Amino acid sequence: MKAAVIDSLERGPRFADFTDPVVGDGEILVEVTAAGLHPIVRMLASGGHYGSQGTLPMIPGIDGTGQLPDGRAVYFGGVRPPYGPMAQRAAAGFVLPLPEGLDEVTAAAIVNPGVGAWLALTRRAALHPGETVLVLGATGVSGRIAVALAERLGAGRVIAAGRNQAVLDQLPAAAPATRPPWPRPRDRTASTSSSTTCGARRPRRPSRPSPAVAWRMPRPGSG
Ligand SMILES: NC(=O)c1ccc[n+]([C@@H]2O[C@H](COP(=O)([O-])OP(=O)(O)OC[C@H]3O[C@@H](n4cnc5c(N)ncnc54)[C@H](OP(=O)(O)O)[C@@H]3O)[C@@H](O)[C@H]2O)c1
Q1: 134 lines ligand 1 (CB under 6 A)
Q2: What is the pTM of this model?
Q3: C-alpha angle 130-114-75 in degrees, rounded to nearest 5
Q4: Rounded distance, CA 17 to CA 54, Å?
Q5: Could you tell me if 119 and 190 lie in one domain?
Q6: Rounded to 5°, angle at Cα 84 from 10 and 143
């Protein structure tokens, strides 16, 4: 099969041939559509993550989306190294059906940062409705999702901090009509529910927007 193959940690991946994965117990074959290109994927691909195994050659990535043999679209993960999702096919350790209306490229991109944001708010911070949430790095993918999630989880105030004012300006302000009808500890008639952006109080360094976060498997003949 064709895949993005890393055979040296000093070089980037190249589009090359790789042996097909052999499906083991509890695994299922997925015809890949897209793979998540998250910070952890970059770190693992360059050998700079504590989970890096150093096995070469390897196919990078940790998760993706694609089709099962019966045609169902799924999100998948649990691919055993040296295999990864940036290939035509992957033997997935787990799959989840995609909800109606969510395209496969977006799904591959948002699950990892979305779960990261979700766990930070619901588990680590154990957010209660009405509380104030400060999101650092709010201009990144996880940060932007965390801002939106905090609103939906009933935060009283969401403060988004980042260095890229243009992206901060794009973050949605709270829309009271869309807020969950959960009781708030403070006066519900007061406008305590608002998104606030901060930052850019000092000269802004040039900042590139967060990169596209899904890698799409090239189709035969697409170059
Ligand atoms: N544990 C988990 O399950 C999990 C899951 C997802 C993510 N994460 C971690 O969460 C972090 C964010 O992930 P992401 O997907 O949101 O990445 P991302 O889209 O690349 O966002 C990175 C954020 O960090 C900011 N940033 C980067 N370098 C900075 C610097 N030198 N000074 C100030 N701000 C800086 C970026 O600001 P600009 O927009 O201005 O560049 C952006 O807001 C990463 O460390 C990732 O590994 C963990």
Answers
A1: no
A2: 0.80
A3: 145
A4: 20
A5: yes
A6: 80
At 94-117, the pLDDT tens digits run 999 999 999 999 999 999 999 999
C-alpha 158 to ligand 1 mean position (Å): 18
Tokens of 79: 């691919």
Same domain? 87 vs 168: no
Centre of ligand 1 from the C-alpha of residue 44, in Å: 15
- For ligand 1, whether the C-beta of 164 sits within 6 Å is yes
Look at ligand 1, atom 24, and give the residue with the nearest C-alpha. 137
Q: How far is the CA of 45 from the centre of ligand 1 (A)?
A: 17
Q: Where among 102, 127, 153 does a domain terminate?
A: 102
Q: What angle do CA 72, 75, 81 make, to 5 degrees?
A: 120
Which is the closest atom of ligand 1 to the Cα of 119?
3
The pair of three-digit structure tokens given for residue 80, joined into one six-digit string:
């055993």
